[in-house]
Design goal:
This protein has 645 residues and is of the alpha+beta class. Among the domains are: 6-59 and 80-377, Methylamine Dehydrogenase, Chain H (7 Propeller), CATH 2.130.10.10; 455-553, no CATH class. The chain is built from 14 helices and 31 strands. Strands 23, 24, 25, 26, 27 and 31 form a six-stranded mixed sheet that branches. A four-stranded antiparallel sheet has the order 1-2-3-4, with no helix packed on it. A four-stranded antiparallel sheet has the order 5-6-7-8, with no helix packed on it. α4 runs antiparallel to α5, α6 packs across α8 (515-528) and α7 (497-510) packs antiparallel against α8. The longest helix is centred in the C-terminal third of the chain and has 33 residues, at 612-644. The N and C termini lie far apart (144 Å).
Amino acid sequence: MAASPCVISPDGEYLAFASPDGRLKVWETETGVVKQQYTPSSHLSATCSCLAWGPPRESLGMPRKKKRKSEKADSDGVGATVENLDLIALGTSVGSILLYSVVKGDLQTKMDGGHDDTINCLCWHSQNDSLYSCSDDRHIVEWSIATGKVKCKWKADKRSINSICLCPDGRHILSAGRTIKLWDLEKKEMLKRYTGHASPVSQLICIPLQLKRKSSRLSRAKEIFDIDGMYFLSSAIHDRVLNAWQVKLQSKDKKAVAAFSLIEEPLSFSVARPSESEQITYIAVVTRNGQLLIFDPVLNGKTKTSLEARCLIQIATPGGKEAVPKPIPILSAQFCNDADGNILLSYGTFLKPVFEKVHLINGENEICLIREDPSISQQNQSTSVNKVKTPLTSDKMKLLTPQNFVAMGPSQSDDIERRGKKKRKGDITERSMEDRLIAMSIACQDIMSGLPQADSLVKLLTQGLRNQDDDILSKVLRHGNETLLKNTVKLLPVQLVLPFAEQLSRRINQNAERSVLLIRWVKAVLTLHTSYLSNFPELTKKLSTLYQMIDTRTQNYANLSRLQGKLSLVVSQISAQAEEASNKELNTRPVMVFQDDSSDEQDEMADLIPSRSESEFEWEELSDIDEDNDDDDEDGNQSDEDSDF
């Protein structure tokens, strides 16, 4: 999807563009002049995410009405006749919708309460008072344009819905997220689902083919289309294929009937059919690389191979002997309503786009338009009048940086004379020329005794800002000395503070390599001139680009800080574990080591420890000795008895 929404009106008269800072610009395609510019009050916090032009008054079938004197519209636009207004619907990132009136040049209605997330797509109902919107909150909302309130709301997907498209019959609507769904608006029922894209679908557009009948009973003729047999196109994010689908309610086939191969991801596409009798459909696809592809298929069923573009249109600069031709990107394209087969192109940049109608010639496979670079031509026109030429100087001359010279005060001798007594009228004398020259020479010697100090660039900066000379400003902004920088900003005239801040904001977005030096200048401006900037009424509008750039670059600062803290914790734990392991190795060493060198000491220790086996052995010997003694006693007794006997 495009970074900034850009839509051409249905009649091709205007181009609406929403800048990244939330401002709406409307260009007139015939003259290329900014017709209107609108800045919402909350354009920084609620940026524009999508745009949709309202249906033209001719499609509503009623002429412009004149308001009565007694008819007064409310302040918020409720009760106003919407048919009398050319409206642009702006979807925001906070879920609100703004209806801007091109006729009034102001906000018509603000609609809230339907979504609580970013709105991705809007589509108008040309036959009744309705506006449909889809959002990241997975809901589709039907709004009442007259009252600015929600008519109906239903959940249409499990994920975010990127695009919606109202069918030509006005009774069905297509929604696209991961898949494409066909809904019945009366019953809010899903009739069919289509799958085929690998990535989320970004855009949808219907191609009415079958005109069933015309109703003559109604007050005004209406074309009623048959939904069965209708074709529609779809593109997906990061996909180089444009798919064509056919609605067949009775069939179970969910695949695409045709595929168009692209050289780059599509940004936008437009469809036109010369007449109902012809089956040829013209498709214009603007790719991300700034080229335009033209297809002219005949949609009458499935195709086996992918279709190639019939014509490639690109725009480039003329170039020359020294200059190399450079491509000029095409921003948007839309088929004109005339019968000549012209297509309206806008190319260049959104700062000042260029509009041109191109006639498609049959048989041409590639068209290269040679045009001047709009940015260079605009820069030459703006700087040709205000360009300041640098005077030629000799090589022997030594140039110093401009310095702030302070007016020299009166000398000490003059103060003494002024403070002296009043002289008499007859005693009036004047200093001679010789005395004056001597006094001037002494003052010049005092001034020239010290070296000149280039501690400020305020003269050079003032000249560059007043003459809008980029070369002078670039030379000044190359310096990064803090003392020089603060002195320059401090002595800058008040009326040039805001233009200097705008120059810094523009240069930071252009050159990211020098952003470090430029940020120092921005800091000095905001620090030293805060009192003036805080009282300036248009400060938010002037510095919105700088604020958005800083907010974008610091968006991931909190996540990076958390990651740094986690990494520091992991590293500290690893180092603590390593230190603990080294301490364990030191603690495993024995306190005392005993080394046995003598066998006698071993015997002495063995004697001290009683042995179970030896005690048992001694016990057995003692028992044997006792038994022997008993036996001897018995023998002795027997011998005595024998002797006595």
